[in-house]
Amino acid sequence: MPGQQAPDAPSPDTPGTGAVPEPGAASRGTREPAATPSDDASARPERGAGPVVPEPPARDLAEPGSAARRVHAALPAVALLAALALWVFAVRRTDVSRLDDYGLVTALHPAFWAGLVVLTTGFWLTVRDPRRRNAWSFAYVLGLLLMERATQAVLYPTPLYAWAWKHDAVIGHLLTSGGLQGADRLGDMAVYDQWPGFFAAQAALVRLLGVENAAMYMAWWPLVSSVLLLLPLLLIYRTFTQDRRLIWTAVWLFFVADWVGQDYFSPQSVAFALHLGVLAVVLRRYARSGGRPGRQGQAVWTVLITVLVTAVVVSHQLTPGMLVVSLVALACTRRYRDWIPVATAVVIFLAWCLTAALPFLSAAMPDMIRSVGDIGANVETGYGTTPTGTGAVATSWAARLLSGSVLLLALAGVLRQRVLRRRALPLLLLAAAPLPMFAASSYGSEMIFRVLMFMLPGAAFFAAAALLPTVRTLAAETADAASGKPGAGRVAAPRRRTAASALRPAVWAPLLALLAGTLAFVPSYSGKDRVNYFPPREVALVQQLFDQAPDGSLVVAANRNYPLAYEDYWRVDHYWFLDDARGHVDEIVRDPAATLARDMAGLERPARAYFLLTQGQMANSEMNGQLDSAQLARIRESVSASPLFARVAENSAGVLYVLKPAG
Prior knowledge:
By secondary structure, this protein is mainly alpha-helical. It has 31 helices and 7 strands.
């Protein structure tokens, strides 16, 4: 009926959709070409007359001037450059020498927060403007990654995360030993030699770059691994829509909600990018056309999937399982009922598990079987991972609220955007596919975080749809073009924006939601930097330990949260007493020196037993509910006063003792 809009009809400001330009649009947005002498006889000079000086064309005073157009065109660049300038100003004036329980949140200069506000506002206004190109949205996303993933690399003189230092030690082992070794030589650390893909590649990179170790560049890995996710994310989202507002808002929300911290120097950071790469290939190249699978060039894509899956399987334990359940979820739909990707992933996964990974799986299988179906225990954090203190609790709740808000937005997007429930059903299935993994294992009390990370690509897409008034899917656009609907395939003319339209709730309410999520990312991601950052003095103290420790020595520490914790693990043993049962920990607290001396005794010379206590261990113990500062101080004072120990080294970041030989 006249004046009635079709259910899937685009809104006038939806990019990539058809609409008839408004009357007068040409006069407002373009200038009529100047008349040439051949076009207008009155412009020709009369015979015998002197040369005629052409008058400047008449200009409508109501028409926006070239200066206004230049200002409008420069706005995205101005906002982006202003945000980056504020970021540079902030990092130059931020002091990280004394971090409190709020981590980087309270240490950052206020200009950093202002820069994030400017960046997010500029992004939202730019991505909603149909006249802006994708390049501007891409530039803003890179600016977001720079501010949120590179700030720590710029501020801290040493790499973050004890686990990153551990992975550097594994690379050092491969470079030193020249090959893989089993549990008879490496004990529990042999698991890394059974999934060596990431470490072997990094060992080759260390040799290629000519650096001493991976610590020379691993501080920048969060930025690198995040950039690696951009291409597969864009390919996945563009499979279902060409609405650039939806695509780039989904990308923004994905990176804002990905606070889990698995982008650090680790196998899972690369495996996750490869996982998304496999899904992108399947979504774009294995869809059925007209009820039949498309076979053109499929052999090439099957080879590519085989290479990507192999790289995932040889690098990480959990990601292949997540990939299999995601591919099975896709294969259950009519559109992707092609079992070649599923069969490829399952065969490669099982082949590796039954060969190279069999020693580890054989030892771990009893515990894995017991955990199957125990969902309550699998999502439980347990002793030693409970946030303690105002700062730790506040940052933990910020992370929970951020994740919960994005998931609720995703639910709102599913309910609100009816067209997405039909056309983007595969993304909805991919968001739900990781949930059954809760019944499989606790994965060292990390399964809840890993499931959230694997849900994010699909959840971010639907959350972005909840922030937009209307969305268009690629299938709907193709159907409109095939049916010959008026305006199909043409870009809608932009609405004239006024101050009143900018104040509409449809503009500022989604912007506030986007701002809240972007700002909440900082405490969620960097709120525990007091635990994760090791100053150069702490690195030097631990390095001094391993420089002098003979082969077969033992290093005893409260926990493994210190740099180089696994250094030389193939020749030096480690014992972290907070990993023991609570009863033994209480015994150490009651009589520290005597109990620790008994635990450390029995080594044959020239091996020696060392006791190491650093600020990283103390921060981790206090903020995660293990031992408080008074109990740790009691342990240190007892060892210091005991005649059984001799002090080897001490600085403001920690102290190192050695157990005196018996007799």
